[in-house]
């Protein structure tokens, strides 16, 4: 299997770096899934039917962030499927060991995965602000102050935060996405 794009650089909670270079697999229904954090995710159909699908569902790109929290890993630019590329959003659940618990396909070629791991168990494990550089924290503080004083709108606030997350390496720039 060959990835269409190169995985993005590591970013996110520093303690997730220990998952780099590791892969986790599980067989669910008729498919074997293999998730390699900060690299890619693959699917291998286990059925004996003619022409079973095996391929890349997504390549590591960026984080989904909401309310100062890393909510999910976004794996994009997987194999082609109809008129789009496959994508996976990986959500995390606290548990004793790291394993793939579930994979669903809410819409064609777009998947959700639940990965259980002890890395998310501490209540502050997925907070964004503490893992940012001091410079980026000060910039975030400034954005929050401007919103508080109504110097920017909610839309402007979100735009500035997205730009900050891009600078911090949590989001890919438009150029890198292309």
Automatic annotation (TrEMBL):
GO cellular component: Golgi apparatus
Domain MRH: 21-123
Top-rank taxon: Eukaryota
InterPro entries (alphabetical): Gtb1-like (IPR039794), Man6P_isomerase_rcpt-bd_dom_sf (IPR009011), MRH_dom (IPR044865), OS9-like_dom (IPR012913)
Pfam families linked to this entry: PRKCSH
Keyword terms: Disulfide bond, Signal
Protein known as: MRH domain-containing protein
């Amino acid at each position: 299997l060959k990835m269409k794009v190169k995985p993005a650089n590591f970013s996110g909670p520093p303690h997730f770096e220990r998952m780099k270079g590791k892969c986790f697999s599980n067989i669910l229904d008729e498919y074997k899934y293999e998730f390699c954090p900060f690299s890619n995710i693959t699917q291998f159909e286990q059925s004996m039917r003619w022409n079973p699908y095996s391929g890349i569902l997504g390549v590591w790109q960026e984080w989904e962030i909401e309310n100062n929290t890393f909510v999910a890993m976004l794996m994009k630019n997987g194999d082609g499927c109809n008129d789009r590329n496959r994508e996976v959003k990986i959500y995390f659940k606290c548990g004793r060991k790291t394993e793939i618990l579930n994979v669903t396909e809410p819409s064609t070629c777009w998947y959700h995965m639940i990965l259980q791991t002890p890395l998310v168990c501490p209540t502050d494990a997925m907070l964004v602000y503490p893992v940012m550089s001091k410079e980026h924290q000060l910039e975030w503080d400034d954005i929050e102050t401007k919103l508080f004083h109504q110097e920017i709108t909610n839309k402007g606030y979100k735009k500035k935060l997205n730009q900050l997350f891009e600078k911090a390496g949590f989001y890919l720039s438009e150029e890198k996405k292309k």
